[in-house]
Amino acid sequence: MKHLIAPAVLAVTPLAALAQGTLSVEGTSLYFIGLADGDTVDSPLTVRFGQSGMGVAPAEIEKANTGHHHLFVDRPPFGEGEFGDEEFELAIPNDANHRHFGSGQTEVTIELAPGSHTLQLVLGDHGHVPHDPAVVSDVITITVN
Question: Which of 57, 80, 101, 123 has the greatest number of beta carbons closer than 10 A?
Fold first, then answer.
């Protein structure tokens, strides 16, 4: 059984190593389209992702000057959370606070409970790791009716 496990580990390790340090294009920006800090909205909410300076490509497609979107919901700003500076080198988790759009989607309709919520966009490379330097939107706070 050991012989079968070792190749799987070797197959994962190089991909993770390649993902770190993918360069971003200077001047690239991420932003929300039609949604601004302080807005009051209804749920479900359609969130549209804006991007300039780089292209969009699905996860696991390694193509220069591209990435895919991640929507951070109700968590500290990128680089200031639980992992601090390490967050710049780690693959973005996939959970309720870190939503992945690895097929290259540029919008999503989400349900949010009534109250205040924070949103931030982070561009990830083919391995879900933020680019170097990281491409992130401003954090916005919205209120859901």
Answer: 123
CA distance 93 to 25: 23
Q: Which two tokens stand for residue 119?
A: 């949103």
Cα 142 → chain centroid = 19
Q: For residues 38 and 118, what is the distance between their CA atoms, to the nearest angstrom?
A: 10
Please name the residue that has the structure tokens 């859901």: 144
- Whole domain around residue 98: which residue ranges? 2-144
The model's pTM is: 0.84
Band the pLDDT of 20: cuts 50, 70, 90: low
- How many structural domains is the chain composed of? 1
CA atoms within 13 A on the CB side of 56: 17
